[in-house]
Structure formats: structure tokens, C-alpha cells
Amino acid sequence: MRLGLYIFAALTLMGIVGAITHMVNPNNYLIEVMGINFNFPVAVWVILPMFLLLLFTVVHMFYYSLKGYFRLKKWQHDAETIEDALYWSLVNEPKEQKYMTDAIKSSAVLLSKSNLTVLDSVEGLSERLTKIVNVLNKIKNGEYVDLKENKLAKVFNEGNPHLIQNRLNRLERDSGFIEEVMKSSSKFSPAVQKHALALFAKNETFYKARKYAKVFDVDNFFVMLNRAAEDEEMGLTVEILNDFVEALKLKCADFVKVARITKKIFSPDQNLALFKAYQKENPKAQNAYLYLLFEYELLEEIGNYLDEQEEHEFMKYRALYELKKQDKRFKLEDLIDAESICKNV
Fold this sequence. Notes:
- The chain has helices at residues 3-24, 42-90, 102-108, 127-140, 161-173, 175-183, 190-203, 206-209, 218-230, 238-247, 252-262, 268-281, 286-295, 299-307, 315-326, 332-335, and strands at residues 28-33, 36-41.
- By secondary structure, it is mainly α.
- The chain folds into 3 domains: 3-91; 175-249, no CATH class; 251-345, no CATH class.
- A two-stranded antiparallel sheet has the order 1-2.
- A hairpin with a 2-residue loop joins β1 (28-33) and β2.
- Keywords: Membrane, Transmembrane, Transmembrane helix.
- The chain crosses the membrane at residues 43-66.
């Protein structure tokens, strides 16, 4: 029963009892307590115990109602806290939360150390959780979500897997974002940098790639180089190639691979001049230079070059050189794997 209704009913009952009592006995009744006389109608003495009972009952009910109210407020607070904990666990940014009831804290504290993954659609969630679940499902399904537009820009920290996936999704749809990542690669995670570079290498020319030579890696450099061997519009020049060779730490096998590709792009004179310069600056390019000399059948230059080296160096090339002096029909690939000669270099 509600407290107000109870008080009204009790007061009504007291009024009825008092009225009946007064009609039966309208006289007063005197009581002396410690020399003090209390002279009230009989009806007042009858309803006085009822009034005292009502008073103590109201105090009792108010106390436990107030106690229940505060307990309910604690549960409501913890319910909101759990929702907040679920939100941050869903976005893979779990946070410590403060709970007011031990019964909830003993298990809900686990959320501050957990990342949640939604496996299927969920109904009946709060508006806040419904929104974030929908956003995460879109990202998971390969869609790009504008986090600023959805007021989620400050939710994800750098390195968050959902943020990384969202940026990967954007790279597939926004060529402008690819170049944005290339320009400021340090602002993005390695996974985003790597994917942006791979897409850039598959689609752009050496004209545009030149200014990003320092952020290229060897694998994507060769992706572009192989494209250049098949596409004259890639814009590869000796100067641009120099920029990439200077920026990348090429190994012996890499230089040989470059030489095998550039012989399809540059003239023999350009190629030889290029690798002659490389081998002077970097010993790892020597095998590539010799490879080109053999490819272009320049036996005199080969002999002169080998004479300048130590006798124990380039033994396979020396053997091939001796054979070719006797019979020019021998080819490099007949005796030497151009890449295997770099195993120990």
C-alpha cells in the first residue's frame, strides 16, 4: 500500500472511532502524570494509541522506503555502469568502472579486462549500444563508416582493430585517402601503411611515386618495376630509379632482379652506365653489373672487370667467361642462376 493512502485510511479510521466514542461518552477523563493533569475527552484517550501506532508505523515505513530507494539507486547506477562497460568492451577500449553493489561488481569487473565480439544481430539493446553494434557490423562487413559524422572520432585510439579495419575499408573506396596515408604514413598503423602502399604500387605511376620513395619497401618497388616493364606510361627514368635505389636497402639479389627488369626498359648503354655507377658505390651491385655485361656479350669489358677483382671472387662468372671465350654459344642461364650467385652476398 502506498504511504499516502495508508495515512489517509488510518486518519479516517481514527476519525470514525473518535466520533463514535464521543457520541457514546462525551465526558472528559483526567490523568495525572508527575503532578501534571491531562484532562481530555474520552474519545481523545481512545484514539491516542491509534495515533501513536500510526506515527511509529509511518516512521518505520519511511525508513525502509528510503533504504529501498537508495538500494534501487545503486542498482540503477550499476546498470548504467554495466552498459558503459559493455560499450567500451565492444569497441575494444575496455575501461575500469566503479560499481556500488558487490553482487554486480564481483562479475561485471571482468568487462574492464575484456573485448567483446558480436556474432549475430541483437534486439532490445539501448539506443547507445544499438548504434555502436550497427557501426561495428558495418565495419566488419567491409563498409567505411565516417566516425566524425557518427560522433565516434574520439572513441577509438590509434591501434584499435576496429579503427584499423575501418581505414582499410576506406582505402578500398577512396583513392584520395591512399595518398593521404602515403603523405603522412607515420600517423597511421603499420597495417594501414602497408595496404595503402600496396594499392598505390598497383595503380600509380613512377611520376607520382617518386616523392614517396622513402616510404616504399622493396616488394612494392618491384611491383611497380614489373608494371613499368609492361607499360611505357609508367614514367620510369634513370633519375627516378636512382631515387628508389638510394632510398631502399637493396641486396645483391635485388640488384640482379632490377637489372633483369631494366634491360627491358632502358637501352644497353643506359643500363650499363647505371649499374657501373651502382657497383662503384655499393659492392652488392657488382653481380648485377656482371650479369648485364654477359647479357650484352661484352667479353672484353668482362675480362677487364674480372682482372680488377680478386682471383677468388666471381668464380662462376670467371668459369663462364672462359667458356664463352672458346664458344660464344654459351649463355648465362645455361650455367648460372642469376639469383643464386648472390646466396653468400
